Amino acid sequence: IDLFWHAEPNRTDMDQTEREGTGWFLPFTDGPSNNPHNPAKGVCQQMIESAGRYVWITTPYLILEEDMLDSLCRAAESGVDVRIITPSVPDKWYVHLVTRSHYGRLIAAGVRIFEYTPGFMHAKMIVSDDDHALVGTINFDFRSFYLQYENAVWFCNSPVVPDVKRDYLETLELCREVTWQDWLKRPWLHKVAASGFRLFSTLM
Fold it and tell me: Which residue from 78, 110, 148, 185 has the least number of CB within 10 angstroms?
């Protein structure tokens, strides 16, 4: 990817592709033609695995492969504050069942799960350690990582990062945390249905 550029303050020779500011900015795209390299998944996974203090995520869909589950769980088990916000009100009920089916393993590892209560939450972003952020169209699911065309911008040491963090904290105030007991109390029909739908998770 050759779109990596650095905006420096007090520059007088900027062209139209640059604007005054600080930090590093990396716009990138992903799609089926990139397989098996998958930069969208790679950037998300690298941000999780390199976080030292916290990594906070919002995603409307949480349909994870084993390696991404492992990355999230390892980060939380190592002491990183891992939080994920998903919708409380789904747009697709069967996808929501599969999303919730992953909560148990994540919560057991120390990941904190929150559901946005006012309605469907469609934001896709990550912020970590006050110095990295990712904002774009990337969902945490198989289709987004492998089958769909996506785009995003990664920010490092940029004034955008605290803005993303502030937005996350404001969204968090409208969320309800899902506890281990909440997950255990799922209706048995939901548990059975989720197990069946997970067989088709790569198509969701």
Answer: 185
| In contact, 56 and 168? CB cutoff 8 Å | yes
Q: What are phi and psi of 116, to 5 degrees?
A: -75, 115
Q: Interhelix angle for 188-197 vs 93-101, to 10°?
A: 100
Whether 94 contacts 197, CB under 8 Å: yes
* CA 184/CA 171 separation, integer angstroms: 25
The tens digit of pLDDT for each residue in 57-103 reads: 999 999 888 899 999 999 999 999 999 999 988 877 677 778 888 89
Distance CA 95, CA 121 (A): 14
Rounded CA gap, 8 and 126, in Å?
A: 24
24-30 and 150-156 beta bridge pairing: antiparallel
- By C-alpha distance, which of 63, 57, 188 is closest to 114? 57
Q: What tokens does 43 get?
A: 């950037």
Decide: 106 and 72 in contact? Cβ < 8 Å: yes
Integer Cα distance of 95 and 97 in angstroms: 5
| CB-CB contact of 22 with 9 (8 Å) | yes
Strand partners, 113: 84, 178
CA 167, 172, 175, 181 torsion-angle sign: positive
Distance CA(84)–CA(62), nearest Å, equals 9
